[in-house]
Write a structure and sequence with these properties.
CATH superfamily of the largest domain: Citrate Synthase, domain 1
Radius of gyration: 22 Å
Number of helices: 16
CATH topology of the largest domain: Citrate Synthase, domain 1
Bound molecules: acetyl coenzyme *A
Strand order of the largest sheet: 1-2-3
Order of helices and strands: EEEHHHHHHHHHHHHHHHH
Helix content: 55-70%
Number of domains: 2
CATH architecture of the largest domain: Orthogonal Bundle
């Protein structure tokens, strides 16, 4: 007898247990291992947050120092990986580049298939450290600019902006980047995390799991939405045009990027934090019109869609924030990869600590007992 129930898009299906992040979609709560996201965003650093997710407790000072040093020691790419990077098409999207190079990184690991906890943690550390370098190098390579080598004196967020732009970011910009990474580090069983855990559940390697997750994240319904938001803001000439633009789109039944969420039916707490960050950065960098267009869009969406539980998600105000930090448009979603590499890795480790292969069922809706027609007779 077939007992399975069908849920399109797996909505409402609990497919695993996690101790990493908790979401209450009705109340707009997100916690990493019990700590509200706002607390971490205002008090922690990205490195500390990742170590917290990996080890399950806030690190003491020596452990954090050791972890930070280990990450900084691994910023640089293997020379052969760099050679591979500088032979990619310059027209490639950075998301394709980072997906390809994380996959390739596995070939430089003498034991890519080791999935005991210590090995996974070690590999995750390398992935965490090199993703910003891959992205910054690829960006400078495609623009014909000399690569800027990582500086071990800088934390991960600051070093990323330094390698990308060739100048040390201001403390405000470095901290804003760090906060964005904390806010994006983990988020329950989102599509890319599920992809990573699903791949890991086959006892495949962590490089494959993270590569698959990157492929998932780039979709416009997932992490790719932050680029969609920026493109939309660019299409709206002035704040006064926002109302008509959104109403026209809604009339055509188009979805507005940066709004709506499978789990949140109230305000995404990450969006709340990013909204104030975006406002401050927009004022500091002369981009206040971007912020004003965003709040105008939010006002229209609030009037038209709040009753349906559609509010800004993490991607809505991250677009303005990333623009003000100086990230090129097509580096928005790749920057999400830097952050989520921490969360994906934590989930791969959690999955393999208590593994069961993911293998859902599917409803077959095709025909049965069809006669095979020889090719001449078709
Ligand atoms: N704009 C307008 N209407 C929307 C939006 C939106 N952004 N999102 C959902 N709706 C409406 C749908 O049209 C649908 O209306 P209907 O019931 O009248 O047909 C209803 O809300 C439910 O939408 P679904 O797409 O079925 O909800 P689902 O849970 O599958 O989708 C998703 C969630 C994919 C995030 C959706 O809200 C969306 O496409 N948003 C825009 C893309 C986006 O911002 N993605 C980033 C999400 S956060 C992240 O992944 C990092």
């Amino acid at each position: 007898m077939h007992m399975a129930t069908y849920s399109k898009g797996l909505e409402g299906v609990i497919a695993a247990e996690t101790k990493l992040s908790f979401i209450d979609g009705e109340k707009g709560v997100l916690e990493y291992i019990g700590i509200p996201i706002g607390e971490l965003a205002s008090k922690s650093t990205f490195e500390e947050t990742v170590l917290f997710l990996w080890d399950g407790h806030l690190p003491k000072a020596p452990a954090l120092r050791e972890f930070t040093t280990q990450v900084r020691d691994r910023y640089e790419l293997p020379p052969a990986l760099e050679a591979m990077l500088t032979s990619l098409p310059k027209t490639a999207e950075p998301m394709h580049a980072v997906r390809t190079l994380v996959s390739a990184l596995g070939m430089f690991d003498p034991k890519p298939d080791a999935i005991d906890h210590a090995s996974l943690r070690d590999k995750a550390l390398t992935i965490l450290a090199v993703v910003p370098t891959i992205l910054a190098y690829f960006h400078r390579y495609r623009k014909g600019m000399a690569l800027v080598r990582p500086d071990k004196n800088f934390g991960l967020a600051e070093n990323f902006l330094y390698m990308l732009n060739g100048v040390r970011p201001t403390p405000t910009m470095a901290r804003a980047m760090d906060v964005c990474l904390i806010l994006h580090a983990d988020h329950g069983f989102n599509n890319s995390t599920f992809s990573a855990r699903s791949i890991a559940s086959t006892e495949s390697d962590i490089y494959s799991a993270i590569t698959g997750a990157i492929g998932s994240l780039r979709g416009p319904l997932h992490g790719g939405a932050n680029e969609g938001v920026m493109k939309m803001l660019n299409q709206i000439p002035t704040v006064a045009d926002a109302e008509k633009f959104i109403v026209d789109k809604l009339t055509k039944k188009d979805k507005i990027p940066g709004f709506g969420h499978r789990v949140y039916k109230s305000y995404d707490p990450r969006a709340a934090h990013l909204k104030s960050l975006a406002e401050q950065l927009a004022r500091d960098t002369g981009n206040i019109s971007l912020f004003e267009k965003s709040t105008a869009i939010e006002g229209v969406m609030n009037r038209e869609k709040a009753a349906k539980g559609i509010y800004p998600n993490v991607d809505f105000y991250s677009a303005t924030t990333y623009h003000c930090i100086g990230l090129p448009l097509d580096m928005f979603t790749p920057t999400f990869v830097i952050a989520r590499a921490g969360g994906w890795s934590a989930h791969v480790m959690e999955q393999l600590a208590n593994n069961r292969l993911f293998r859902p069922d599917v409803d077959y809706t095709g025909p049965h007992a069809v006669a095979y027609t020889a090719i001449e007779g078709r």
